Amino acid sequence: MVKIVAKDYLGVKTLERASPESIAVMVGSEDVRGLDFVVFEQPDITILSGHVEGNDIEDLQPHLSVEIRLASDPSKVESVFPLPLVLLARDLPRSKHLVQLRSRFPSSSHRFQSEILEVDLEKQPQTHAGPLRYNVKEENHKQEPTPAPVFPLIVGVSVIALFISIPRLKDLYQLAAGWFLWDQAQSPNTLLSPRVIASPGWLLVRCRGDRSDPSLCDNGTDLYLYTGCLFLAFSHMATGQIFSRNTQALFYNYKQLPIQRMLDFDFLCGRETPSVAGIINPGSEGFQKLFFGQEEIAIPVHSMIEAACSAHPTADVFINFASFRSAAASSMSALKQPTIRVVAIIAEGVPESDTKQLIAYARANNKVLIGPATVGGIQAGAFKIGDTAGTIDNIIQCKLYRPGSVGFVSKSGGMSNELYNTIARVTDGIYEGIAIGGDVFPGSTLSDHVLRFNNMPQVKMMVVLGELGGRDEYSLVEALKDGKVHKPVVAWVSGTCARLFKSEVQFGHAGAKSGGELESAQAKNQALREAGAVVPTSYEAFETAIKETFEKLVEEGKIAPVPDVEPPQIPEDLKYAIKSGKVRAPTHIISTISDDRGEEPCYAGVPMSSIIQHGYGVGDVISLLWFKRSLPRYCTQFIEICIMLCADHGPCVSGAHNTIVTARAGKDLVSSLVSGLLTIGPRFGGAIDDAARYFKDACDRGLTPYEFVEGMKKKGIRVPGIGHRIKSRDNRDKRVQLLQQYAHTHFPSVKYMEYAVQVEAYTLSKANNLVLNVDGAIGSLFLDLLAGSGMFSKQEIDEIVEIGYLNGLFVLARSIGLIGHTFDQKRLKQPLYRHPWEDVLYTK
């Protein structure tokens, strides 16, 4: 293996052999670290762009080229492109091609070439390969070429062939191709010269020469190539103000608190219309009630982004509160809407590849992307995004309810709140503040917003808070050096403590990780200071530097400090006022049987876990929820027996019949159940309460069965609990017998049941079918349960009978059977029921 380095000999740079040990590709050393290039295939043209990464790329790139051969005829070289390359390859067939990185000039004493990559532009729309093997050849020597092994984690080559099928992106690439063609027409033998700016991986190609076609390349328009994501984009940022007092937003993925904070800020600023025009909540539509000052308003909810944009054409800001899993797709959908101008992505952890696509699309379409991993932004006295600047108390303390004179931009949302407060203490406050987000690839950069502020007459000075990691701050350095910024900039890059650690440290943000000396906070602060920014010696001195800069501008007459105004009082939400003890409010519902406010639900004060641990049954749960006490086991078991005995009585009784007919009509379970339950009443299953009521009254008054029955007869009232259509003296109801046997065995007293049996004896003397039925048995025995348990007062017993507790047992029990009939009919797939004609008496 041979180490290759660039040597300058009499002003001519060549590749020379440096040592026999290795090929020099160490990160941080002087040679090649990696290569990125992309092939964009158009119907009749192919655009290639590429960039070699390394500390001395200026020396190395002129010696490297990309060679393309036709796979069907490897001996034929179709094209050779020097690096850095931003070129067009015409007549490149849609077929397989062989791509190889090679030394460019034969004058080099040593040459190297990569392995050959096969790229099928037609069948493989996206291809990635790398790292590659390299061969190193020593020219003018007799020794054979020595193969070099893979450069692990060092040399990365991305070869991507994109067949453009997305119409909007296709238009972008065609426009880029037209721009290249026009520029080559101006100077056909001159290559455009890329150079690295801003964050690593961005290439900037500037239009040069006279501009004769402003539709293709107007003043200040640059073509960016991003070698990390390999997408083309136009640099359209700069311009000026992006928010105003009339700005309205669409809020994606409903969150009540951030939206209410936006509306409270609107009221604080004296806006006439809410800043949230609509809410997009996938899968739901309608309205959400929120407060705009003292007035309760209804904000429309849409299920689709397109529908929301169509319904609210004046809303040009899209605030995306989606999770990192779906934020990219929803943001791209918003960017494609013609009405949307600004997109803010709150989520952090959005995949970097997705973020790069969003960045490229936003810049190509002259839209502003804030985030990901951002709290958003704010224009004082006009508009704010979501939770920017925190609570209303903090907003008032930071004087954000009215505009100041300072433009502020930061990577950190949390530190933005701190700086809003700092700036408010020593200046007249901010005019606009932006947190670009802490991810590695923010949608907009520090310099993007500083250049915007520079174009805004309301902003008199800028405050910038950067952080270690990445090279975003160097784009600001370049702008300062190029004289693009004419207003004072006070800047600080946090993370100077990183040097105290022996190893590299990842701070809070994904991008807050120094990748070398240039990305350290110290290097950035020094570069900003040398470029003309006001940079303090420490963060502690940052406030003083801001204050001194502001006061100097005031002395020079460039700033007329904004006078303070008294903001309106925001009405306090009732729940917070109640919590703080400021108001009293009546409740609307009283509940004494259950409580779900703790760690687990409680039934009559008994935790759910205790119910399970003690092996409580359905009867025990009923005793807790119905009677608000834990009854003895014989009582709860009697309740369970009643439920079992009354669960069903065949398909012919009125309740079951109704349920069956309804189920066969195709109705759902609830409808079928309810149709059967609605038949329960005085003539079917609803006589338990009446039986208990009349038996109790007669027994307590000491009436004989004769007096009781004859008295009811005189009143024209049938004795409830007595009589059956099928059962008789000789065919007793087995259910009644089972209940009586259980009561005799377990109940301490059965006086009401014995009175009911005496009444039955008298009624049987009148007719053979006037037997004690199950309603009468349950009614009388329940009276014995309540009275004999000793757990209920006379008043409570009367109240239980009067309210209708006992009928509740029948309703609960019979629901089991009615549900069973519903399932039975649906399982059997029974057709619509029609009653037969022969079973109907048709008469006049």
Task: Describe the SSE topology.
Layout: E1 3-9, E2 12-19, E3 32-41, E4 45-54, H1 57-60, E5 64-70, E6 73-82, E7 86-90, E8 96-103, E9 110-114, E10 117-120, E11 134-138, E12 146-148, E13 157-163, H2 167-186, E14 195-196, E15 202-206, E16 222-226, E17 231-235, E18 248-252, H3 256-269, E19 276-280, E20 286-292, E21 295-302, H4 305-311, E22 315-320, H5 327-335, E23 342-345, H6 352-364, E24 368-370, E25 376-379, E26 383-384, H7 392-397, E27 406-410, H8 413-426, E28 430-435, H9 446-454, E29 461-467, H10 472-481, E30 489-494, H11 521-531, H12 542-555, H13 574-579, E31 594-595, E32 602-603, E33 606-607, H14 608-613, H15 618-627, H16 633-646, H17 654-664, H18 669-677, H19 688-701, H20 705-714, H21 734-746, H22 751-764, H23 774-788, H24 794-803, H25 805-827
Parallel strand pairs: 3-13, 18-19, 18-22, 19-21, 22-23, 23-24, 27-28, 27-29, 29-30
Antiparallel strand pairs: 1-2, 3-4, 4-7, 5-6, 5-8, 8-10, 9-11, 11-12, 14-15, 15-16, 16-17, 20-21, 25-26, 25-28, 31-32, 32-33
Helix pairs in contact: 5-6, 9-10, 10-11, 15-16, 16-21, 16-25, 17-18, 17-25, 18-25, 19-23, 20-22, 21-23, 22-23
